[in-house]
Design goal:
Elements (H helix, E strand, L loop, with lengths): L1 H18 L2 H12 L5 E5 L5 H6 L7 E6 L2 H9 L6 E6 L15 E5 L7 H14 L2 E14 L6 H12 L13 H11 L3 E6 L2 E3 L4 H18 L4 H12 L7 E11 L2
Parallel strand pairs: 1-2, 1-4, 2-3, 4-5
Antiparallel strand pairs: 5-8, 6-8, 7-8
Helix pairs in contact: 5-7, 6-8, 8-9
Protein name: Methyltransferase domain-containing protein
InterPro entries: SAM-dependent_MTases_sf
């Protein structure tokens, strides 16, 4: 499982880096730079994509990488940028009370909160506000998928995929496409200064590997709902795989930056 997840994360990293909103990324870097030797805590770090994206913008930054997968933590530490100071923490994000955040200036996460429940998001927002910690959360899926080459089953596939995204992924009933808006709402309700920006994937034929895994993942998720005939799913997937090298798609995401006032 860890090996598959690492391969998926590697496939999506170029698309993620291109999609991140540059203004929010720069604002997060500026906030960290304002305090020498600041600490950033990356929640659900995976192989360390946020570290490799944000870290080079803030010389002297310290990182605490948090994940529940020791193989991914080891890979993140191995891939850290030269000169970066990194500690790893094997932890269950669901146990927020036990999670060590201090003395962080900023918590970060990428593609995490669409897997989490509203309760998890509310509890994290409350803790960040109490402890005076900001949050830079990138790439929460927003429910929109638009293919360059349309197919008759696109609407049904996207709707059922979005329904599947709301199932429990280990942190309670997942917010799925509602995550970015819910996160911004909870953080603002705790008094943080919140900014949001669209950060869509724009996939073309040059990202056929990612497109292939993405549409295969959509088909698997829709099958698990049991709400669409297998013949319809298979026909849609065959049609999608036939054009991954000659067409593209847009997958919507939302970036959120919340800072103490």
């Amino acid at each position: 499982m860890s090996g598959f997840e690492a391969r998926w994360l590697d496939l999506r990293e170029p698309a993620d880096m291109a999609a991140r909103d540059p203004e929010l990324l720069e604002a997060a870097a500026a906030y960290l730079s304002a305090r020498p030797n600041a600490l950033a805590v990356d929640l659900g770090c995976g192989t360390g994509s946020t570290l490799r994206t944000l870290g080079p913008l803030v010389p002297g930054l310290n990182w605490r990488l948090v994940d529940n997968d020791p193989a991914l933590l080891a890979e993140a530490e191995r891939r850290r940028p030269p000169g970066s100071s990194v500690e790893t923490l094997l932890a269950d994000l669901g146990d927020l009370d036990a999670l060590e955040l201090r003395p962080a200036r900023l918590a970060t996460a990428s593609a995490l909160f669409d897997l989490a429940s509203r309760d998890f998001v509310a509890r994290l927002a409350g803790r960040l506000a109490r402890e005076g910690i900001g949050l830079y959360a990138a790439l929460s899926y927003d429910g929109t998928i638009v293919f360059d080459v349309p197919h008759a089953e696109d609407a049904a596939m996207v709707a059922l995929f979005n329904a599947h995204q709301r199932s429990d992924k280990g942190l309670g009933p997942a917010l799925g496409p509602d995550a970015g808006a819910a996160l911004a709402d909870e953080l603002a309700g705790q008094g943080l200064d919140v900014r949001t920006a669209s950060s869509p994937w724009r996939l073309d034929g040059g990202m056929s590997g990612l497109q292939t895994k993405f549409v295969e993942g959509m088909a698997t998720a829709v099958r698990e709902t049991g709400e669409l005939a297998e013949a319809a799913i298979a026909a849609w997937l065959d049609a999608r795989l036939a054009v991954v090298e000659s067409s593209g798609c847009r997958v919507g995401h939302l970036d959120v930056l919340a800072l103490p006032r």
